[in-house]
Amino acid sequence: MANKKKVIVTGFEPFGEHAVNASWVAVQELDRIGLGEDVDLFVCEVPVEYQAVQTLLPSMWTEHQPRLVVHVGVSGLAKAVTLEQCGHNKGYRRLDNCCFSPESECCIEDGPECISSVLDMDSVCKRVSETASGTKVTVSKDAGRYLCDYTYYTSLFVGNGRAAFIHVPPLGKPYSSEDLGRALQAIITEMLSQLEGGHAPARCNHQGHQ
Question: What family does this chain come from, according to its entry (predicted)?
């Protein structure tokens, strides 16, 4: 159907102590249950590699022309499903799965310090929490200066803000893959609803940077 909304949702491959990456498990569960008949869902596992992200994301946006791209990552510190409002350009020193980090320590040379999603994550959080999905949802403005933040910033830059990032806790701490899949379904459905309402792109300057 030509009027279907194309949505891309990505998770990450295993890295570090995360021998099983809850983000990709959650995305696979979402792929199983879907986002409804009017959404054309495409899922992808992203390498935990800076250079792979630099190549993969722009081609993904160009090839699929999605309405929205949602990246999902795991955080060992997360106790709730966390909606990230913005991505950051600088501070990437931690080595990836190929023992590489960008020499410039940034995503996009001369890019803005911070880019905010066109989505209002506080509003998404409030609406999803009211549906009593059984999964705690919260909002953050710091995605961690590793591949999660790097991927988010790159996608926001390429997609003019029509991207989102969701951090999930490790499996069983406390949520199952089914819990996380249902939470992603509810959150992304709400994000699409908000997008249909029409929001102007916004630059994030919560740290006073331009």
Answer: Belongs to the peptidase C15 family.
Burial of 69 (0-12, 13-18, 19+ CB in 10 A): buried
User: 50-68 burial, b if ≥16 CB within 10 A, otherwise e?
Assistant: bebbeebbeebbeeeebbb
Tokens of 75: 């955080």
Reported as a single tens digit per residue, the pLDDT across 33-52 is 999 999 999 999 999 999 99
Q: CA–CA separation, 85 vs 133, rounded Å?
A: 21
Has residue 209 been placed in a domain? no
Q: Are 78 and 137 in contact (CB under 8 A)?
A: no
Using CA atoms, how far apart are residues 156 and 108, in angstroms rounded to an integer? Answer: 11
The boundaries of the domain holding residue 154 are 5-197
In a domain, residue 182? The reply is yes
Q: How many domains does the chain have?
A: 1
- Report the CATH number at residue 184: 3.40.630.20
What pLDDT is stored for residue 4 in this prediction? 87
208 domain-assigned: no
Q: Is residue 60 classed as helix, strand or coil in its secondary structure?
A: helix
Give the ranges where the chain is alpha helix by DSSP (H).
Answer: 22-33, 50-64, 121-130, 147-158, 177-197
Q: What is the pLDDT of residues 167-187, one digit of tens each?
A: 999 999 999 999 999 999 999
Give catalytic residues, as residue numbers: 84, 148, 167
